[in-house]
Amino acid sequence: MSSEVTSMKDVKKQAPLKAAPAPKVKNGIKLLIIEDEKALVDALVYNLDREGYEVTVAHDGQDGLRKAQAIPDIILLDIMLPGINGIEILRELRGNEKTKSIPVIVVSAKSEETDQVVGFSMGADDYVTKPFSVKILLQRINALQRRAEVPTKEGQGPVELIEHKQVKVDMVKHRAFILDEELDLTPTEFRLLECLLRSPGRAFSRQHLMDSAIGEGAIVLERTIDVHIKTLRKKLGSMDMIETVRGLGYRFKE
Ligand code: CA
After folding, report:
1. pLDDT number for residue 13
2. 38 CA distance to ligand 1 middle (Å)
3. Which residues neighbour ligand 1 (ion) by CB within 5 Å?
4. How far, in Å, CA of 167 to CA of 180, rounded?
5. 86 Cα: distance to centroid of ligand 1 (angstroms)
6. Can you give the residue ranges of every domain in the chain?
7. Which CATH architecture has domain 4-148?
8. pLDDT on residue 149
9. Cα of 227 vs its chain's centroid, Å
């Protein structure tokens, strides 16, 4: 117990090189929010600012397209907007040399599969359905950021393909394959596979997998994840790629 840090003075003394995370410390990530719902924007700005993001807001499509010219690191894009809608904005962004590589998370109240398909086919990098928790959004932003940071083999552009063993997940087309056979996955199974496949060998708790694949707001039992894993394993075939970590959760075979 004697080595325990007892005051902020001690923290400074003991760890001068690595400052403890504190509010207002900029992480340097520029985020553009294109969203007309004021209450949601206020909540997002408050929380993202606290996490250190440099947030810019556009309340309509026209303004959003204009502000995108400053090349933010990530864009949060609403679909239902006054003037130019989100799908149209995405089309514009992807058709423009300067803005075509900016990672875009589509944020929408529309939860129909077709809207997600349209969003992904138009080049959205991720899709979050309203209402969502800030925690989930932050996880998705972080995941997207990590993805964007990893260069491709050619050393440019974000990695759009996660590949391990015979399994392949195409994040742009939102499709998954095993030995080049397409897997017919539910959105939850897709997210589960994505989460596990990103870190082969890493043991994930059931809670972590639920947050990533189902969403924090969802009221689910821990065994719900077991059910999804069971169906996912079945779809992956007889090869036991997803291993059970006793007392914790699961991991993808290294
Ligand atoms: Ca809206």
Report:
1. 46
2. 9
3. 36, 78, 80
4. 8
5. 9
6. 4-148, 161-252
7. 3-Layer(aba) Sandwich (3.40)
8. 57
9. 23
d(CA 82, ligand 1 centre) in Å: 8
* Whole-prediction pTM: 0.52
CA of 76 to the centre of ligand 1 (A): 12
Pick the CATH number of 161-252 from 3.40.605.10, 3.30.2010.10, 1.20.1250.20, 1.10.10.10: 1.10.10.10
> Which stretch of 137-141, 159-163, 196-200 has the lowest confidence by average pLDDT?
159-163
User: Ligand 1 mean position to 77 CA, how many Å?
Assistant: 9
Two tokens, residue 15: 């760890």
Structure tokens at 101: 């590589």
For the stretch 163-180, pLDDT in tens is 998 999 998 878 899 998
Ligand 1 centre distance from Cα of residue 193 (Å): 30
Distance between Cα 57 and ligand 1 center (Å): 13
**Residue 236: phi, psi to the nearest 5?**
-75, -15
| C-alpha 85 – ligand 1 centre gap (Å) | 9
C-alpha of residue 79 to centroid of ligand 1, in Å: 6
CA–CA gap between residue 77 and residue 108 (Å, rounded): 8
Single out the residue of 186, 165, 162, 175 nearest to residue 239, CA to CA: 165
Nearest to 78 by CA among 112, 39, 121, 109: 109
